[in-house]
Amino acid sequence: MAKKPPSNSTPRITNRRAHHDYHFVENLEVGIVLSGSEVKSVRNGQVSLGQGYARVETNGLYLYDVDIALYPHAGPNQHNPKRRRKLLAHKHQIAHLADCTTSKGITLIPVAMYFVRGHAKLEVAVASGKRSYDKRQVIKKRETDREMRRAMTRKVI
User: Which fold would CATH assign to domain 13-152?
Assistant: First the structure.
């Protein structure tokens, strides 16, 4: 009997607003330390990465202001939804991120959260903020591309 492909029942939570607000320099996949009720909430897709950011500190890499909703069936063992969470990366990766973020206007932002073989992973991007005119240019280019595609698909009579 043939094996069924594994069902991807856990969602990939993305920070869609980040692509609009930042220019990405590089991405890095890191692990994240979660408690039991947090894992259940992440598997349910109840995570908000919109306001989150990461910071390199003296004793490691930490994630701030990511809201993981309370899991209703956890009872008295609930977690703090906006607590500081430790990110897992190699020492040389953390040192590289620390070097990247020393310049002004560069920050670490969470882009996506997902599971790989049962382990929670977070994609962190080294990013610089976009100016308002950059955002307008991107919107204008997207609209002109859409109009060109529409014009190409119209039938000529």
Answer: Small Protein B; Chain: A; (2.40.280)
